Amino acid sequence: MDPNYILIILAFCSVIWAIILCFRVKSIEAYFFSAFIFFTGLWILVLGMSNLSRDADRVIFLTRFCNIFGILLFLSLMFFSSAFSERKRIIFENVIIVVSLIFIFLSFILPNNEIYKSIIIYSDKPAEGVLGSFYIYYCLLVLTIFGVSIYYFITSYRGFAVKKRLQIKYLVFGLFLFIFGAVFFDVVLPILGKEQLLSLGPLSFLFFVIFASYAIIRHQLLDIKIVIQRGLIYSVLFSFVAVVYILGVLILGLIFQGITNLTMIIVGLLTTGAGIYGIPPLDRFFRRATDRFFFKDKYDYSEAIYELSEILNKNLNLSALLQKITDKLLEILRPESLYIIVPGQNLIFSHDKIIRKTKVGLSAELTRAIEIHPDTVLVISDIPQELDALPKGETGERRRSLEQALSFGADYGIEMAIAIKSGTHLSGLVALGKKLSGDYYTSEDINLLKTFACQAAVAFENAQLYEKVKNHSKELEKKVVERTENIKSLQEEQRQMMMEIAHGLQTPLTIIRGELSLLNNQIKDKKEIGRLEHNIDHISRFIYDMLRLVRQERDGEERKTVFSLSELLEESIDNIKIITEDKNIDVAGNIEPDIDIFGDKSEIEELLMNLASNSLKFMKPGQRGKIILDLYRKGKEAVLIVADDGIGIDKKHISHIFEKMYRISNESFPDKKGTGLGLAICKKIVEKHGGAIRAESRLGQGTKFIIELPTRSS
Fold first, then answer.
1. What is the CB neighbour count within 10 angstroms for residue 615?
2. For 329-365, how does the pLDDT look when each residue is reduced to its tens digit (9 = 90+)?
3. A cellular component term (GO) from this record (predicted)?
C-alpha cells in the first residue's frame, strides 16, 4: 500500500481527535493543544496529497498550503506551551506572531521559482525538485518557534508538581521526536536535494501520539482520556467504512470486470448499509473493550474526601450542590451512570447533568427498604444473598423491600445505592452504575461513600431548607408586589373620586355665588351675605387645593426645564411686596445669584407663593410683621428659606403639618384657618423636584421653612 494513503488516514484521525478534544475539554490549554493536532493533521493531509499529485502546478499549490499549516502548527505549539507553563505573553512572542503572519502571506504571493527552483514530475513516485531560497528562512522560523516552545517547558519544569513534571517529560520527548523527524525529513533533506524520504516526516507524528497518549492515560495530561478513547474509536470506525468501500470496489470490479456507474452505486449502498447497521454495535463493542484500559484509575482517598467535603460545605443551592457532587463522583469513581434522587421533592439529577422533576418518586416500600437497611451503602449485587438468608416462606416487609430495591437496580442499571439519611429519614439517594473499567467497587470505595453519606445528610437538609426559605421569600415578595399594586389602585380610585367630587361641587358653588351677587343688590343688610360669600370662598379654595394636590400626585416631568432660581425668587419677592404693601408687613431677601435648578418653574413659583401666603395668614394681628426669603448654595444643593415672625406653631404639630387635611386649631386665633392642603401641596412639589422640606417654629415667635433642592450641576 502506498505510504501516502497511510498519511491521509493519519491526517483524518488527527483532525477527528482535535475536533473531539476541542468540544469535550473546556480549557485554554486544551484549545491550543487541539489546534496543534488539527493543523498537524492538515499539514500531513496536504503533504500526502502533494506526494500523490502528478501535476507540477498542483504540487507547488499544495506545497504553499503545506508551508502555511506548518507555521500554524508550530504557533499552536508555542501557545500551548505558554498556557501549559502558565506564562504571560512576552514581546518576543508578538514579534514571532507578526513574522509568522508575514511568512503566511508570502507563501500565497511568492512566485513559483521561490517555492521550487526546479521540479521533476514522475508517474510512479512523488515529485522531486530543488526548493527555493524561501525555505531557508522558513526553516529558521519554525526552528525558532519550536525552540521557544521547548524553552517554555524546560524553564517551567522545576516549578511544577511531580505529576506535571512527568506530563512535560513525556510530552516534550514526543514533541522532540516528531518535530525532529518533520524538520529533518521535510525541511533539511529537501533543501539538500534529498526528497525520497518526505513521507517519513509526517509519520514521525506517531511518536508524539504514542508519548502524548501515555502522558494522558498514565499521568492525566489535560484529563482527556475520554477524548483519546473516542478519537481512537471513531478513527477505527472511519477506517472500517473506508475498508468496506475499498473492498467493495475491488470485489465488484473483479465480478463485473471493471468499475462502472452501476458498481459504484452498489458499493455506495453496501457501504451505507455497513455504516448504518455495523457502526453502532462496533462502537459499543470498542467502548466496552477500551473502558477497562482508559478508566482503570486509582484516586487519593484523603484528597477525594477533602474535595467532596468542600463541595458539601460551600454550596447551599440544591441544583448547584447536585451538579458538583455528580461531577466529582464521576471523576473519582468513573461509573457508567449516576443518579442523585431527592425523595422529598421528587427530583432526580443524572450523569447527563440534567435535573428532572419526576411524576412518581421512590415507592414507599423502596424508601422504607433503604431506611431500615442496617448499612448506609446498599450493594445491589448483594441483595440476592440477603434474600436467600431470610427464613423460607417469609413474605414480610423485609423481603418486599429488598425485592423492590433489586427491581430498582435492574431498571436503572444500578450497582450500588448510597442512602443519605438524617436520623431514620431518607434525605437523598445516590445510585451508581457499574464502573467503566469493569472493576468491582472496592472496600475503599465503599468507605469513601459512607463518609460522604454522613456529611451529605447535613448538606442536603441545609440545601432543602435554603430552597424552602428562598421559595417562601419569593412568595412573600409576590404578595408584597400584589399588595402594593392593590394600594396603588385604591389610591388612584381615591384620587379619581376626589376629582369627581371637586368638579361636581364647582358648578353649584358658582351658581350660589351668582345668586348671592343678585341678593346683595336687593338686600340692605349685607352682613349675612358677606358671611356666606366668605364661607363659599373658603370652600372654593379648598376645592382648588384638593384638585391641585391630585394633579401633583399624577403629573410627570414633561414641563421641567433649567431655570434660574435666583431670578425667580427676586420676582416672587417683588410680587409679595405688592400684596403686603397695605398690610404693615416688611418683605426682605438675601439671594445668592446664579443658582440654577432643573424643574417646573410654575410649580416652584406656586411653592413660594403658598409659603408666603401661609406666612401672611398667620401674622400677629395689630403688629408689624416681617417675611424673609433667603437663597444660598450648599454643596450641590440650593437652600431656600421662607421665614416669618408670626404666631408660630406648637412643636407637637410640627411633624404633622405636611400631612393632607391636617389643620391646627388655635384658640387664640380662631379666625386663622386653612384648608389643610396647602403645605401638603408644597411637600409634593419639593419631592417631585428631588428635594426635601422641613419646618422650624416656636409658638409666638414665628416659623421658618427650609427647602433643599438639587442644583443643575448635581
1. 27
2. 888 888 888 888 777 665 676 756 566 655 445 666 6
3. plasma membrane
How many other C-beta atoms lie within 10 A of the C-beta of residue 491? Answer: 11
Residues 111, 245 within the same domain: no
Q: Residue written as cell 517519513?
A: 200
Residues 212 and 328 in one domain: no
- Residue identified by cell 526528497 is 195
Q: How far apart are CA 354 and CA 326, in angstroms?
A: 11
Q: What is the DSSP letter of 345?
A: G
Q: For position 24, what pLDDT does the model report? A: 67
Residues 456 and 308 in one domain: yes
Residues whose CB is less than 8 angstroms from the CB of residue 645 and which lie 6 or more positions away in sequence, other chains included: 620, 625, 626, 701, 702
DSSP string of 246-308? HHHHHHHHHHTTS--HHHHHHHHHHHHHHHHHHHHHHHHHHHHHHHHHHS-----HHHHHHHH
Q: Which one of 205, 223, 241 terminates a domain?
A: 223
Q: Which domain, by its residues, includes 664?
A: 558-710
Per-residue pLDDT reduced to its tens digit, 280-327: 888 778 776 776 666 555 667 788 888 888 888 888 787 788 888 888
57 and 201 part of one domain: yes
d(CA 690, CA 709): 7
Domain with residue 640: its CATH number is: 3.30.565.10
Would 507 be classed as within a structural domain?
A: no
* Residue spans of beta strands (DSSP E) within 158-232: none
pLDDT digits (tens, 9 = 90+) for 371-416: 666 666 767 777 777 777 777 766 666 777 777 777 777 777 788 8
Q: Give, for 705, the enclosing helix (H) or strand (E).
A: strand 702-710
- What single letter denotes the amino acid at residue 148? V
Work out the burial of residue 578: count CB atoms within 10 Å of its CB; fewer than 13 is exposed, 13-18 middle, 19 or more buried: exposed
Tell how strand 585-591 and strand 625-634 pair up.
Answer: parallel
Q: Could you say which of 242, 274, 294 is where a domain stops?
A: 294
- Contact (CB, 8 A) for 220 and 163: yes
